[in-house]
Amino acid sequence: MTDRIATHIDGVALNLTNLDKPLFPDGFTKGELISYYVEVAEAMLPHLRDRAITRVRFPEGTAAGSFFEKNAPAGTPEWVKTVSVATSAGSVNYVTAPDRATLAWLANLAAVELHTPQWRTTEATSGPMGIVLEGEDEPRATTLIIDLDPGPGTTPADSARAAIMTATQLAEVGLVAFPKTSGNKGLQLSVPIAPTPASEVYTFALSLARLLTSSHPKIFVANMSRAARTGLIFVDYAQNLASRNTVCAYSVRGLNRPSVATPLTWDEVAALQPETSLAVSPGEALERVHSLGDLWETQMPTPDSPELPEPLT
């Protein structure tokens, strides 16, 4: 097993360790994880920019358990950029990732998954303990996220139908949704919006979930109880809270095999069949970026992004 390799990425000195160590049961190694994140960086970094990153780390591989990490770990290099966020438990010093070197450093820590909130640090107010998550100074979200989590007994075709119906409902109020796989079993829709207080975005997402479930009770459920989800698609509206986060586009997921949260076209969503696999390997994700570019490039919020409508009824 490779012990340590000294290298430079964009002028930053890095010591990479145990590159031959398998992180997934299929043999996908830490070196391959680092290589993927460096190669996908051009497409991924715009979606990470100015966002506090929660990491899911698998130090001994995905078969041996994981832990969520919010604070920058001990020994974080001085060149790694961080941002402080005020929480009920105190100030949390999150890592941010503006460059390829930071992505490589995170992957070297076996941070397989990278999750971000719907707000950017540029749309947040800092107090004595860092960015304030609640009250008048709460962050302004620049995206609305709709996580469509398939319950037991559903198929990718069911997820596709739910995604199309949700996007249609959003289009009726002037919002454009961009789909991606969650990297696991479901689909997620991201909607660029003008900066809006996170609590208002949460309220809108909750109203959408309630409207979908009341209009289509045999397709959607908004009840967080897992026992209520069999045969239905759970509309997870809570990921819009300022304190919550969602897996970033192009992040690897810590499953039995490495699968990437991958932007899709709506034609691809419409073509999903019951037996279709939503798993996209890191190699396949890179091939898609090389041939299609970043399908979410136009998803980035702009000064022309629409205002969030009033809650739906």
TrEMBL record:
Record domain DNA ligase D polymerase: where: 29-296
A Pfam entry, by short name: LigD_Prim-Pol
PANTHER family (UniProt xref): BIFUNCTIONAL NON-HOMOLOGOUS END JOINING PROTEIN LIGD
Protein's name in the database: Bifunctional non-homologous end joining protein LigD
